[in-house]
């Protein structure tokens, strides 16, 4: 009989004892974390069980932050390693960003017996195993609520509230930049390039928007969500990732006509393959969502995570998925949790990978395709195409033909089929003379 | 300096050690809890840190449950008190319902050092103080996630995820029966009586729907939500409560025309009175909600809890707020949490009432009125009415007049004002000869 990972236990230091914090990084999140702890110290005292005392804030340059609260309080230091090792530091808060440097610091902190609170999705998605092992070895906590959808409680609900349930699916709008762009395209009919420019102008997109628009940011979150939902380690490399830069105003218009909208979704599923083997998959791609679905109404830069579980049924968590304050809210919730354990003893649930389900190859995953193409307007073309779908074992849900002069527009929506077979079918269709152009291929979410 | 309530700490029994459960009640929830633990025992072993072993299921009549799983497993007993006192019982699960009898059993269990998981909103809303004190005295956990909105994680997020934030407002659709009725009235235009009958036919309403339609059920949940959100003890008696039985098809139609819908909301607020004193209020009443608001799209018997916090901004939690399986999901999440603490040591956050804010009289609360009335169609009436609002210090947001033969319909929406002043104003208006009828007065949610 296997037991849960952690067996080590440390008693608390006792109610009323101070809890020392080291904050690594002083950007939009770190500065809000410091400000809120400073302004609400009385509340934190009661909620954590003892006063939260900031021992220092590590930055790359002290000059850069002159006049800031951290500077006024004399907390700034460039020596992160000495700070996190201090005996009077119990919790290390990592809000630097990036992977290699924070990874080094977080591992050092855990090994030094400090609990760690991080908002770093890339770090957690890439190195969950060594981080979890270091935390377990030291018997301390590793919290990362802010790593997924900022202020929206997702990690906690999956780890705790749904700990007695079996999660089947997680489908999330977990990137505000891409949701802003797609929502703006949907409401204005404008092009991707124009709305990306608008997002950049309004500060929703960074100078280099690649990580957002190509889905890499969402893929990190998908890995974390799948790991939590299925008690299986899923990393960034395991996630199929497709961005939104190829989505056109025409795609959005076609979706509208079909009563749908296009969202960039992080989809995590547990399913059984033909051999009855249970597997998990995590993927990120533009998805046609029925306007009746709760996810369809998530507008602007808001995030939402939709969960379907065996007993709970359908749940959705909605809110601000980015920004200094919303991220600080999640970080502070984690700080209180970690501080409570330092004061009263006990540990938060650690990484849970006991189910250790195989991760499906993307080709095996069941998806639905929405194929928009231009075909010759002549007899027999539809029959020819229908045969190709049939030969590849793909059954069709709807076929819509809009006649033109000598070119007809054909929109085909398939039933769920193996991604591999759908891709092969599209390749085959491309090779047909009668098919002049495949305008778009977008996957569809089955309600 | 005051410390958090609990100071007592019990080390865990150690990983792999069995955790004994006593289930009190075997109705729709209890039977699903037993089934799911039985079917997923391997999962629970890993998630709780040790095997969950059911010691018994207490019922009023063993015969009544012959042939059930509990009966097959030989778990049924009518002696709840002996069961919950057994040395090999660590956690007592109360899913009986009612107040007095479960209250007695839960207190006995806590005093006997057992952690308690309950789904009983009425019990928690009426007796939170003595339950919390008994749990603290014994150093055990009292969990009640299922008491509010069943499967939707609300208690956990308010206690943990938002523990570092300052909650300003909680507005929830926390009663599925009334939401089903109002949503059905909205989509069909039918009357309250017809849709109540429909809800009863479909099993969404009980034979005696009073507790649901008059808002008592929602009021219990409002008390729990306000207590958690504001770290102040708010009980059922503190909640202003108004049901939906007086809502007419005409009210719904008028709301539609104004781009709104009517929802029964449990509203919990933190605000400052004229003297700058911070106060809290909790109330339940039909509310006009703008169709753009996330709560407006919550259809059928679904529940949703909308939270506004200082740093997190706007959050919403959506899902199934009732039913055997969704409620069991929440109960099981709590069981895993309580079991982990028995195995690894540590305690869940207990009741937090340190803020101890005064509870505002409903008359002091700021609300907005939507007043629909019939007035004589003659000069000067509007001026006369406007003067009354002005004299009572009420400023108007919108005034809409629909002329008739000699009777005009007048719809007035006020700005936020003291509930007391608004009530007085309506009384004054009633006394005017020119006002033939006040069709309806419904409060409005400010976005």
UniProtKB/TrEMBL annotation, chains A, B:
L-homoserine binds at residue 206. Its EC number is 1.1.1.3. GO terms for molecular function: homoserine dehydrogenase activity; NADP binding. Its cofactor is a metal cation. Gene3D superfamilies: 3.30.70.260, Dihydrodipicolinate Reductase, domain 2, NAD(P)-binding Rossmann-like Domain. GO terms for biological process: methionine biosynthetic process; threonine biosynthetic process. The active site is at residue 221. This is Homoserine dehydrogenase. It comes from Corynebacterium pseudopelargi. The lineage of its organism: Bacteria, Bacillati, Actinomycetota, Actinomycetes, Mycobacteriales.
């Amino acid at each position: 009989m296997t037991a849960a990972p952690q067996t080590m236990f440390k008693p608390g230091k006792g109610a009323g004892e101070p809890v020392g914090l080291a904050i690594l990084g002083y950007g939009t999140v770190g500065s809000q974390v410091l400000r809120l702890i400073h302004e609400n110290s009385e509340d934190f005292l009661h909620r954590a069980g003892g006063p939260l005392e900031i021992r220092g804030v590590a930055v790359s340059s002290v000059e850069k932050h002159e006049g800031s609260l951290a500077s006024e309080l004399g907390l700034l230091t460039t020596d992160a390693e000495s700070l996190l090792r201090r005996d009077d530091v119990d919790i290390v808060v990592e809000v630097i960003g990036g992977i290699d440097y924070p990874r080094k610091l977080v591992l050092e902190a855990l090994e030094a017996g400090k609990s760690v609170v991080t908002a770093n999705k890339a770090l957690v998605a890439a190195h969950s195993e060594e981080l979890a092992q270091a935390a377990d070895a030291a018997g301390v906590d590793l919290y990362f609520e802010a790593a997924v959808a900022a202020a929206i409680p997702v990690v906690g609900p999956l780890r705790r509230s749904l700990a007695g349930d079996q999660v089947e699916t997680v489908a999330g709008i977990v990137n505000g930049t891409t949701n802003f762009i797609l929502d703006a395209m949907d409401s204005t009919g404008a092009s991707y390039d124009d709305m990306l420019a608008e997002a950049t102008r309004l500060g929703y997109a960074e100078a280099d928007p690649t990580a957002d628009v190509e889905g890499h940011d969402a893929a990190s979150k998908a890995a974390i969500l799948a790991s939590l939902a299925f008690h299986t380690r899923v990393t960034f490399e395991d996630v199929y990732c497709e961005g939104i830069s190829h989505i056109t105003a025409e795609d959005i218009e076609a979706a509208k006509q079909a009563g749908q909208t296009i969202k960039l979704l992080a989809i995590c599923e547990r399913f059984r393959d033909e051999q009855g083997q249970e597997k998990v998959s995590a993927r990120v791609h533009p998805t046609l969502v029925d306007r009746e679905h709760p996810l369809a109404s998530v507008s602007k830069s808001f995030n939402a995570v939709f969960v379907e579980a065996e007993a709970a049924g359908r749940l959705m968590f909605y809110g601000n998925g980015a920004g200094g304050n919303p991220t600080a809210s999640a970080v502070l919730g984690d700080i209180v949790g970690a501080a409570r354990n330092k004061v009263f003893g006990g540990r938060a649930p650690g990484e849970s990978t006991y189910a250790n389900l195989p991760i499906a190859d993307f080709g095996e995953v069941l998806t639905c395709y929405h194929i928009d193409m231009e075909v010759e307007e002549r007899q027999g073309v539809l029959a020819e195409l229908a045969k190709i779908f049939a030969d590849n074992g793909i059954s069709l849900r709807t076929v819509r033909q809009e006649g033109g002069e000598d070119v007809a527009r054909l929109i085909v929506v398939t039933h769920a089929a193996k991604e591999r077979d759908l891709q092969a079918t599209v390749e085959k269709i491309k090779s047909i003379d009668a098919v002049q152009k495949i305008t778009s291929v977008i996957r569809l979410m089955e309600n």
